[in-house]
Write a structure and sequence with these properties.
By secondary structure, the protein is an alpha/beta fold. It folds into two domains: 108 residues, no CATH class; 214 residues, Alkaline Phosphatase, subunit A. It is 46% helix and 9% strand. The protein is built from 16 helices and seven strands.
C-alpha cells in the first residue's frame, strides 16, 4: 500500500487526516509492526460497508463540528504546536479523546477478528543499578503479589552478560525482521559495550550524550511564541544528526528516527537517564514491539540548584559543580519506573498474556519472575545461568 485512497481520506474525521498523512509520508521510518498495523487498519476501513463506516465515525464527526478546528484538508501532513494547542484547549477535548480511543478499539478488534496477526512469546527484563541502599520492605510490593522469587546460583550481575548474549544471539523466530528481535534501553553502557550483545538494538543515555546536548542547545533558542517553537521543532525533525550518534546506531535509519521522535516527545528523556530508559521502553513496546526487551537503569546524580532543568537545560552546563550520586533518590525512581515498564508492556495487545517479566537487582541471588502459567523453568532454586538462558530462549523460540 503506497498511499491512502483519497476517497477514504475524504470520509474520515478531520482530526484523523493530518496524523494519517504524516504516518504515510514517513512510512519507511516506521517499524515492521507499525507498518503491518497501519496497513491492516486502512485496508479494514476501506472494506467497511458505508453504513458501518458512518456508524463508527458519525459521533466523532458530530463532536468535531462543535470544535473550532484549523482549516485542515486531505493534504495536511501534520499538526503544528499551534494546531495541537487549539485541539487541546477545546472544551470538547476530553470527549474527543474518549471517542478516538473507542474508535481505535473497534478498528483493532475488527482487524484482530480476521485472524491474520500471529503473536509471538516475549520477554521483558528490568535491571536495577548496583549500589542502591538496602531496605527491609519489599522492592516491588505490587509486582511481588503477582509473581515469585527465583533463586539463582550467582548474583545477577555475574549472570547478566552471558544471559543477555544468549537472548540476543538466539535463533530468530519465524517471520520476524532483525529489528523486531531484541532491544535494550540503558542509562550507562553495560550492554552496549558487550560485543556478544551486538545483534540487539541498544540505546544508551550516556552514549547519546552528544546528540542530547545538541538538541537541548537548539531547543533553548525557542522564543516565547508558538511560531518560534514550531520552527525549531521542524528544524529538528529534518536535521541530519548522524555525526552525533555511535557507529552502530548511526547505520540504522529506523532506529535514528526512533531516537529523534523519542527526544522530541518530551517526558524527560533528554535530561534524565532513568526517564530515558522507562519512556524509551514504553515507546519501543508501542512501536517496534520486539520479542525481547532489556531495561537497565542507573544511579542518577543529585539535581543541582539553578540548573533550569524545566527549560530544556543540561544541568552540567548550567552548573559546573561536579555531579554527586544520589542512590537514595534513585531507589525511589527506579522502583516506580520499572513498574511503569511492566504496565506499558502488559497493556499492549502484542505483550499481554504472552510475556515473561524478569526483575533483577545486580547484587542479589534471586530474581522476581512474572510469567504466564504455561512458562516453566528446569528449577526455581539456585538456578544456573545455563538454565536461565535455555528456559527463556526456548520460550522465545
Amino acid at each position: 500500500m503506497a498511499e491512502v485512497p483519497q476517497e477514504l481520506l475524504a470520509k474520515l474525521p478531520r482530526t484523523f487526516v493530518p496524523a494519517l498523512n504524516e504516518q504515510m509520508r514517513d512510512l519507511d521510518s516506521l517499524f515492521p509492526a507499525e507498518q503491518r498495523s497501519l496497513t491492516a487498519q486502512i485496508d479494514w476501513l476501506a472494506r467497511l460497508p458505508d453504513a458501518q463506516f458512518r456508524e463508527l465515525f458519525e459521533p466523532l464527526k458530530a463532536l468535531e463540528a462543535k470544535m473550532e478546528l484549523p482549516a485542515w484538508d486531505v493534504k495536511t501532513e501534520h499538526l503544528t504546536i499551534r494546531d495541537t494547542g487549539i485541539l487541546v484547549r477545546s472544551p470538547y477535548y476530553p470527549q474527543w479523546r474518549s471517542q478516538v480511543a473507542e474508535i481505535f478499539q473497534k478498528v483493532d478488534a475488527g482487524v484482530s477478528a480476521e485472524g491474520k496477526t500471529a503473536l509471538a512469546n516475549r520477554l521483558v527484563v528490568c535491571i536495577l543499578p548496583a549500589g542502591l541502599p538496602h531496605r527491609s520492605e519489599p522492592m516491588w510490593p505490587r509486582l511481588e503479589k503477582q509473581g515469585r522469587w527465583i533463586g539463582i546460583e550467582k548474583p545477577f550481575a555475574e549472570m547478566l552478560e552471558p544471559f543477555a548474549a544468549a537472548v540476543a544471539s538466539r535463533r530468530p523466530a519465524a517471520g520476524l525482521e532483525p529489528v523486531e528481535r531484541t532491544w535494550a534501553l540503558e542509562y550507562g553502557a553495560k550492554l552496549s559495550g558487550t560485543q556478544a550483545f551486538a545483534p540487539a538494538r541498544v540505546l544508551s543515555f550516556d552514549a547519546l550524550g552528544p546528540l542530547r546536548r545538541e538538541f537541548l542547545l537548539r531547543l533553548n533558542t525557542i522564543h516565547k511564541d508558538l511560531r518560534s517553537a514550531d520552527a525549531v521543532l521542524e528544524e529538528l525533525r529534518r536535521m541530519d544528526f548522524r555525526k552525533f550518534l555511535p557507529d552502530r546506531v548511526e547505520q540504522e535509519a529506523r532506529t535514528r528516527e526512533f531516537i529523534r521522535n523519542l527526544f522530541l516527545s518530551g517526558n524527560g528523556s533528554m535530561l534524565f537517564g532513568n526517564s530515558f530508559v522507562q519512556w524509551g521502553a514504553a515507546e519501543v513496546v508501542r512501536r517496534a514491539q520486539p520479542q525481547a526487551l532489556f531495561c537497565a537503569f542507573g544511579i542518577r546524580p543529585k539535581l543541582k540548584p539553578f540548573s533550569s532543568v524545566v527549560l530544556f537545560e543540561d544541568q552540567n552546563r548550567a552548573n559546573p559543580v561536579a555531579d554527586e550520586a544520589d542512590p537514595e533518590g534513585s531507589l525511589g525512581d527506579v522502583r516506580l519506573l520499572t513498574e511503569y515498564v511492566y504496565l506499558s508492556a502488559n497493556q499492549h495487545p502484542a505483550f499481554a498474556g504472552r510475556t515473561v517479566y524478569l526483575f533483577a537487582v545486580p547484587e542479589w541471588n534471586s530474581v522476581l519472575l512474572l510469567a504466564p502459567a504455561k512458562f516453566s523453568l528446569a528449577s526455581e532454586h539456585r538456578l544456573a545461568v545455563s538454565d536461565l538462558c535455555s528456559g527463556l530462549t526456548n520460550w522465545l523460540a
